[in-house]
Design a protein that fits this description.
Order of helices and strands: HHHHHHHHHH
Number of domains: 1
Helix content: over 70%
Structural class: mainly alpha
Largest sheet: none
Strand content: under 5%
CATH architecture: Orthogonal Bundle
Number of helices: 10
CATH class: Mainly Alpha
Radius of gyration: 21 Å
Number of strands: 0
């Protein structure tokens, strides 16, 4: 009977190589989260706009992105955008753009629920104080909405860390891609991808538990 011989030394010998991929994963996730938060707010404001054409554009963008697979969107950004614009797009750029738009579509819903959750009386109080609608939004409504949406936004960061692994398909040198390259040379996919799965778990699980604790604390107030 065949007995598999584990060779974990192949992982320790390439530890720095894999960790450089992890560093790229975390950088991509952080940059993408910032962009997605900005784009998500823009889409949310378009969704709630009183100007019908702008509102329909925002709704359409969100619906199309939320109802198509993220992998297809990344492949579209990497292979189709260069054809449309006639310029070469780096795989890292395509990944950041694709992930940012995808997460922005979901974050926009988080923003919208947060903005609509601000009591109407607060807006009316701002008008009594003489604030313009724009001043009222940025000084009264948005700060409260952001506080209410911080836990869901943090959850999106965990999602982005996991979604960044899709960059391996378009040759972005994050940790999953590094694992694919390593397993192609050491012929040890079991050890390689088990190690990568453990790394993702060590990063994502504490974050997820911390977010749940945070949400319980906010609900208890």
């Amino acid at each position: 009977m065949f007995k598999y011989q584990f060779r974990w030394d192949t992982i320790w010998g390439s530890f720095d190589f894999l960790m450089s991929g992890l560093q790229m994963t975390l950088i991509i996730s952080a940059i993408t989260l910032v962009l997605a938060m900005i784009l998500g707010l823009i889409i949310a404001l378009m969704d709630m706009s009183r100007f019908a054409p702008l509102r329909w554009i925002g709704i359409s963008i969100g619906e199309v992105i939320r109802n198509t697979p993220i992998l297809v969107q990344l492949l579209w950004a990497y292979y189709v955008l260069p054809i449309v614009f006639g310029v070469r797009i780096e795989s890292l750029t395509a990944l950041v753009v694709g992930l940012s738009l995808y997460q922005a579509a979901f974050i926009s819903e988080v923003y919208r629920s947060g903005i609509q959750g601000v009591p109407k009386g607060h807006r009316e109080a701002a008008q009594v104080l003489g604030l313009t609608p724009i001043q009222s939004f940025f000084r009264i409504v948005l700060p409260q909405a952001v506080r209410m949406t911080l836990p869901p936004l943090a959850s999106n960061f965990v999602q982005l860390i996991k979604f960044s692994s899709l960059g391996a398909v378009i040759s972005v040198s994050e940790i999953t891609r590094r694992g694919m390259e390593l397993s192609a040379t050491n012929f040890r996919p079991l050890e390689t991808f088990t190690f990568i799965a453990v790394v993702y778990f060590i990063i994502c699980w504490p974050l997820a538990m911390g977010i749940r604790w945070w949400e319980r604390r906010l609900q208890a107030r």
